[in-house]
Amino acid sequence: DSATQFCSAERGSGVESCGIPSYSSSSTRILIKGGTVVNAHHQQLADVYVEDGIIVAVQPNIKVGDEVTVLDATGKFVMPGGIDPHTHLAMEFMGTETIDDFFSGQAAALAGGTTMHIDFVIPVNGNLVAGFEAYENKSRNACMDYGFHMAITKWDEGVSKDMEIMVKEKGINSFKFFLAYKGSLMVTDDLLLEGLKRCKSLGALAMVHAENGDAVFEGQKRMIELGITGPEGHALSRPPVLEGEATSRAIRLARFVNTPLYVVHVMSVDAMDEIAKARKAGQKVIGEPVVSGLILDDHWLWDPDFKIASKYVMSPPIRSVGHGKSLQEALSTGILQLVGTDHCTFNSTQKALGLDDFRKIPNGVNGLEERMHLTWDTMVGSGQISATDFVRITSTECAKIFNIYPRKGAILPGSDADIIILNPNSSYEISSKSHHSRSDTNVYEGRRGQGKVEVTIAGGRIVWENDELKVVPGSGKYVEMPHFSYLFDGIEKSDANYLSSLRAPVKRVRIQKTATRRSRRSRAMTTVSLRKQNTRLPPEVNRVLYVRNLPFNITSEEMYDIFGKYGAIRQIRIGCNKDTKGTAFVVYEDIYDAKQAVDHLSGFNVANRYLIVLYYQHAKMSKKFDQKKNEEEVAKLQEKYGVSTKDK
Ligand SMILES: NC(=O)NCCC(=O)O
Ligand SMILES: [Zn+2]
């Protein structure tokens, strides 16, 4: 029975506690010889030497002494261990708890070539700190490295503060918002907006489960009213259009806030199209398909056997034929970036909670052990992607998005020694009889494939070899993930561009007699105080102002209203012929008032025109031109406007 193949033992002890051996350690020095080493950017024939959990060298023909374990990888691929970005181990959900905990789920992962996963912490009654502590406890028996995302299920000041603690002290750099599961995990748009803003300020990645929860609720009622209570009702109640709507909404809100977005388990063409559109427009949106969505279709939900049909219930639902193939294409062309599992297993007894009502079937399927094999077979085996692409979508991209590259996701000197050896000529068959999950069912039951992970090395130890697991409870490490991943590059600049594109606020003149009088008094006060302080004025300051860019139809009254706010005016002359239209001379009684007017009115918007208000610059003009000629010019101008600068 697969459920009893493993048991918990004391943390890191290798102690047996239920008759199944666990292993304290194996060699800390390993040489992998003669394989094709594949990274996301490059593949080469090389040896890989590992010491104390770290990759020390990657090059051809490495020579070592006797005390080193040598693995022959001739004809095989040596690749970074998989990183699953989306799992739910020991998660309390829909009235029960997932059957795989951190030990059994991770053991299964290692048998399938995945050496790290990122699980979702669910807050306790909305409390993040309590949620984090609960997951610290749940993960004590971990046997491989793991990180945490965190769900946000309510909003208040405390949550906002705790998000900062999670990011700065606990190594969480992503928060998930469920737009589905009305009445339990679902958040409304106002909470999502608050969350997006907070994520942006913390440099944390916002993630969404994108289904319209209100509409799903309506769809479920509709099915029950039609007498459809079986697993097929699950798919019918939450069609692709509801996934497309929520994906589009989340993407648009993220664009409004200008923060990156990660859409988890993209299951439909509808959602994928929204992601494609946004990415084409330059928005930072990551799309994560999951293995079940890539290779299964929904006909299983119509199976007459409830035990079979119910095991395929997950959300968003597995879709009709065609969606999966389109998602594969999107993955191969880069519209979608990485593959997860959403591993969230319930055994058949737990699934039976919804025997009479599909709404009570715990949502979730397996995949942690199968992801690497099925992705290789479906995507590389079919020729849709290369081995380097495979490494990118199963490992490297995840490490980059969550900011742990190249510690993870690469076979490079200095990287963690999380390595798999995959034999492309070896085949497998998936079955709940032989898998390592505790579940008694498997959604890939009976599936055969080519390309098998023969060796898994996690943290520098061989944990899977010859179809045998050698796992140590408590040996897995929590991996802190720093905030501000590459997805945040350029956000500040685009915010600055946005602000400078606004041409706002527009300064507007309000022509209101009473207000003018009051403000005239207050402007006069400023002038008085300038004068009282005996402020020295710059040499160009002049009682005579030359104003340009005025509306052609501006009246004297409007001019007095605008300029009169700054003090007593001796004279205003508005240009009224072809050459002078749109200009005016304004002469103040007091030079301090003239200064106030220039300071406040330059750039002022009057009827959509920005005023240019200048001091009459006698000195400047005289430098440029012959003094006499200039004086004549000015005299001519003054005459034209009928302006006098001589004191009466
Ligand atoms: N996906 C699913 O059906 N179960 C896990 C919870 C979630 O991710 O929505
Ligand atoms: Zn999930």
Automatic annotation (TrEMBL):
Source species: Brassica napus (Rape)
Necessary cofactors: Zn(2+)
Family to which the UniProt record says this protein belongs: Belongs to the metallo-dependent hydrolases superfamily. Hydantoinase/dihydropyrimidinase family.
Matching InterPro entries: Amidohydro-rel, Hydantoinase/dihydroPyrase, Metal-dep_hydrolase_composite, Metal_Hydrolase, Metallo-dep_Hydrolases_sf, Nucleotide-bd_a/b_plait_sf, RBD_domain_sf, RRM_dom
Protein name in UniProt: dihydropyrimidinase
Keywords: Hydrolase, Metal-binding, mRNA processing, mRNA splicing, Nucleus, RNA-binding, Signal
Catalytic activity: 5,6-dihydrouracil + H2O = 3-(carbamoylamino)propanoate + H(+)
Domain spans labelled RRM: 543-618
